[in-house]
Amino acid sequence: MSHIASCASVSWTSSNVDAAQVSAWQQDHHDWLDTKPVTAALAESLQVVAINDDRLATATTDGRRLMINPTWSASLSESQRRRVHEHLVWHAAAGDYRPHYSKDTHRWHLACDHSINAQLLQLGGDIPLDTVMFPVAATWRREEVYTWLDGHPRPAEEQSPDQLIWQAGVTSLHADLTELDSHWQQHIRAVVQRFLGTPCLPDRVAAWLLGNR
């Protein structure tokens, strides 16, 4: 079995660029404590690491770590980085570290991206014009969006800002996904209990976090 941490081509945080980018992502989380408290709470257990690997062109998550290509991260503006960062946190919360090999990888990623962006929009997030978002499917479940995308005339024109870890051709260090799922279920319940009934967490987003996705 091959995974990021065991590949000879991998370099863990070692350069000034790597350290600066990890620090920038960590600062995002600190700033979210006041501006995006739900995302900050969801991200509490996610470690940020810089990884140089040819397979990781952008960033991904294995549900325990946010893994970033530091050169790519350095090319982003602060607002771009924070949008991708927040998006990845919600990928982790949604369990998108779990592989779905039977699905068309691009369509499934788009369906997951759309679903996450629909939640972030409800939280008042900034959604640029090139964001993966299908207004007609705003309230649909991911499986419904995935099926609908089969009829999309030009799906290749829709591009995700990140990578799902299993689509990048790598596997997680943490093979026990059942344990990881359990961790996230408990963590999400605690976050929902903390923020439900406040302006920070609309009921529909809470339901999505609890599995209605």
From TrEMBL:
The lineage of its organism: Bacteria, Pseudomonadati, Pseudomonadota, Gammaproteobacteria, Oceanospirillales. InterPro entries: Put_metallopeptidase_dom. PANTHER family: SLL7028 PROTEIN. It comes from Halomonas chromatireducens. It holds the Pfam family DUF2201_N. Residues 34-163 form the Putative metallopeptidase domain. This is Putative metallopeptidase domain-containing protein.
